[in-house]
Amino acid sequence: MSGNATQGAGNWVSNDNQVRFTSSKTNKQNKTIDEESSFATSAAQLSADGAFSMSVDLASVKTNIDLRDERLRDWVFEVAQFPKAEISGKIDMNAIGSLKTGDSLQLKQPLTLDLHGSKQDIEAELTLKRGADNSISVATAQPVVVDAKKLGMSGGVAKLVEVMGLASINEQIPVTFNGTFTRQ
């Protein structure tokens, strides 16, 4: 094993993630409103062999409106049946091991999203920055677009449109991630 590969070895964990999404809704007057929301609870890990996994607690959704949070949990995410979103993939540990303190790297990363009983292959454009020997910050360089329709959540979205008296809600949801991974 080279010195660089050794630097990347070990398990990395992140519990201080910021997972945000933007919903776009159009009212009956054709005015579009974008609203940013987030999830308060998520955890991610990266194993020494490059296996990446992340779990997002869907019940932790935060829109700053309690009733909307409840409707998203019950109607769209259906957390009683599907409590978590799971993201997985395989990361190039040699690329991570080659980062020195202060270095950054752009990485196009194929991932699999398992949400609402369906899977969607996604590609994330990530920026990785080495903060110290035992920490790496990771952020999406561009939002990842999640398709609510492909994931079987259209019924819940339609219910929101009806109850809120909207013309529509865009089912293409941009999602961003920002977190710091610490080597254990």
Task: Summarize the structure in words.
It holds the Pfam family YceI. It comes from Kingella oralis ATCC 51147. InterPro entries: Lipid/polyisoprenoid-bd_YceI, TTHA0802/YceI-like_sf, UCP029811. This is YceI-like domain protein. Residues 1-30 have a biased composition (Polar residues). The chain is of the alpha+beta class and 184 residues long. It has one domain: Lipid/polyisoprenoid-binding, YceI-like (Lipocalin), CATH 2.40.128. 18% of the residues lie in helices and 52% in strands. It contains four helices and 13 strands. Strands 1-4-5-7-8-9-10-13 form an eight-stranded antiparallel barrel. Helix 2 (66-76) packs antiparallel against helix 4 (154-164). The chain is elongated, with a radius of gyration of 18 Å. The model is unreliable at 1-8 (pLDDT under 50).
Topology, please?
Blueprint: H1 3-8, E1 12-14, E2 18-27, E3 32-39, E4 42-46, E5 51-57, E6 61-62, H2 66-76, E7 84-90, H3 93-97, E8 104-115, E9 118-132, E10 135-140, E11 144-147, H4 154-164, E12 166-169, E13 172-183
Antiparallel strand pairs: 1-4, 1-13, 2-3, 2-12, 2-13, 3-6, 4-5, 5-7, 7-8, 8-9, 9-10, 10-13, 11-13
Helix pairs in contact: 2-4
Protein name: YceI-like domain protein
InterPro entries: Lipid/polyisoprenoid-bd_YceI (IPR007372), TTHA0802/YceI-like_sf (IPR036761), UCP029811 (IPR027016)
Pfam families: YceI (PF04264)
